[in-house]
Amino acid sequence: MKTRARRIALVSLVVVSLTVLVGPFLVPVPRLENTFSPQALADADSQFIEINGLNLHVKTMGQGEPAFVLLHGFGASLYSWQAVMEPLSQQGLVIAYDRPAFGLTERPLTWEGRNPYGPEAQVRLVIGLLDHFHVEKAILIGNSAGGRVAMQTALAYPDRVAALVLVDPAVYSSAGAPSWVRPLLNTPQMRHLGPLFARQVQTRGPELIEKAWHDPSLIQPETLELYKKPLQVENWDTALWELTLASQPSNLAERLSEFTLPVLVITGDDDRIIPSTDTIRLAGELPDAELVVIPAAGHVPHEERTVAFMEAVNLYLSRLYK
Predict the structure, then answer these.
(1) What is the pLDDT of residues 41-71, one digit of tens each?
(2) Which of 149, 179, 187, 202 is the residue whose CA sits 20 to 30 A from 225?
(3) Arch. (CATH architecture) of 38-320
(4) How many alpha carbons lie under 13 Å from residue 175 in its C-beta half-sphere?
(5) Domain ranges of the chain
(6) Which of 107, 102, 94 has its CA nearest to residue 55?
(7) pTM of this prediction?
(8) C-alpha–C-alpha distance, residues 229 and 105, integer Å
């Protein structure tokens, strides 16, 4: 009787093990249909510039100093900044680009050396752009996860950053999966299934965009189309999964005392993605920060309340360069 029970337990263990190890590979991951190269989806004013071996999608306006680099958030692209590029260009050179895994920037699936989706590579891209445009120092304007990249760049290259404008930055929230989950995500099984998880953006994207606005009724149909456009780029799903795997805790909250440069912190008063209270707290913990809370605005005040956003930025710049 005991021998029979052991055999049943052993068979059960084998079945469970095979299900866990082999089962995921039996789930079909069909190829994406109707996808195109980034160049095929580009606009007339798009530029493709090779920086650190990566073909970046970039748009520029204006010239001279100060120079601004615009860093969009997760799931967005440089189109997030389209309403503010022209008014900012009246002050100087404006550089907006699609961060790796987003927009029309190249999405490599294999690479040698540094992971192009990792935090260090993202910082080096900012510096590479400054070098390409012969900019000695720039003002970095970052929204959400783009704000995190802006802060990491300022810490790594303080002599290249004149000031920061942080728009609802993701500082206190963790980046990516918890550390205990990461070994699981990097297994061959999860790498096989990963693109399927990334494709949920197709169905959840509109919901997240609405959540990012205080008043979703103000979102224009063309805005939704601009957010959907990068989902037509070949390999966008696999690249988004690679970004997820490469994400790491920033530990920025423990390093706030190191930010001695001028910082303007902006939040909407109704941010439901990065709580407004978190951004207000950040402004209070940074050594040299000014805070602006824009009423009737959510996570992307530069899109939803462009006039109020530019008023705050212009007033700050007037004091910065008086």
Answers:
(1) 999 999 999 999 999 999 999 999 999 999 9
(2) 149
(3) 3-Layer(aba) Sandwich (3.40)
(4) 25
(5) 38-320
(6) 107
(7) 0.89
(8) 12
